[in-house]
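Review box. Two proteins, two foldings.
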Amino acid sequence: MNHIAIDLGSRESQICIRDNSGKILTQERRGTCSLGKYLAGKEKSRVVVESCAEAFVVADAARAAGHEVVVVPAMLVRQLGVGDRGLKNDVRDAQQMSNVSCRLTELPTVHIPSALSRERKAMCNMREAQIEARTKLVNTARSWLRTQGIGVMRGGGQETFPERFRRHVASRGRKVPEEVNRVLQALEALNLGIAEADKQLTTAAEEDPVCKLLMTAPGIGPVSAVRYAAALDDVSRFHSAHGVEAYLGVVPGENSTGESRKRRMTGITKAGPPRVRWTLTQAAWVILKCNKNRTTEVMDPMAAWAREVAKRRGKKCAAIALVRKLSGVLYAMWRDRKPYDPNHMRKAMQQAGMVAQPPAP
């Protein structure tokens, strides 16, 4: 079996092919967009690429051509010798990756997400990019009010921000300048785009059986469900809820040495996809807020457990603990194909001693 290492670039990529003995057979540059056709004409080989924006498209094309595919994590390529001694260029990188592929039977590889998973991530990313752009434009318009001494407007209601902005300026006997009006027009266009993105995301979540199942859990809406399902992609690749929690980076880190007998735990590792942690954190705060004024008997069991944690460690710690608990619960729901049942959850948590047992009759 030959070993094809490709140092990917946005326009062109460097290719190095070695045989099983390590002898270099071919070195050449090819257009990145033509790699699929190039790999289809090669005999069955091991294709090695570094994880980047183009990696998964190339991996799909290599798999379709019958090749074995390895997508090396970007954080590990240095340990494989890429960039050793401060020497790093496309030709050398491709040579080093192909050399390592010849020497090692098993190479570290990342999970190659499915096309559906990548489509969902792109859907969420584009929506969030629009929201971030809207936030920046809103802040820019608000700053103009302060520089003019008009005062910051307040209130909400059914009016959109551009409508309230124009009415507020008119109430002060002023006219909105042309440059500010262009910002307001961009905001109106963004509002329409975000509304369409919300509708598309909601439709995608309601049509997917996994997302519909996840949305039965408290605090989980279309965005959280789609983000979570896209991040895990295939629930069978995780052996337990603890594996999911570690993958999402919501488990405590550790900073202990061999000489110390005491384990020194740190904050959560934040090793996984940050957007999934962000959406789950919002879901955790929603759970805490909705159960704020409820009694322990009627509130959600996860909220009751988080309330006890908050008494000992504070609200922020309780919210992060709830994020970890929620990520494991969602995994169990997906694995067992069962909707969220608060009564079953309460019994399980009582048996584990996480919440108080009901008083004896």
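Next protein.
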Amino acid sequence: MKGKAEIRQYVQSLLTSSGDYGPLADDDSLLLSGRLQSMDAVEIVVFLEGNFGIDFAQIGFDREAIDSIDAIYSLTQTAAVGY
């Protein structure tokens, strides 16, 4: 089952790989706050394309759409193709 728990686990792994072990709420800002960097945004996009069928070439890229676990989950619910 693909969902918020899978997204949370992935985001948490990105944070810990950069040394961020702080608490993480589903609505915490990830990119705009600086907790994650632009390369992490690319990794999130690749993760979403591969695991949720989101085609960013079709929908365009908006940093705010991947700035929190809640935002990412919402994107998966509205933009996923065939998943």
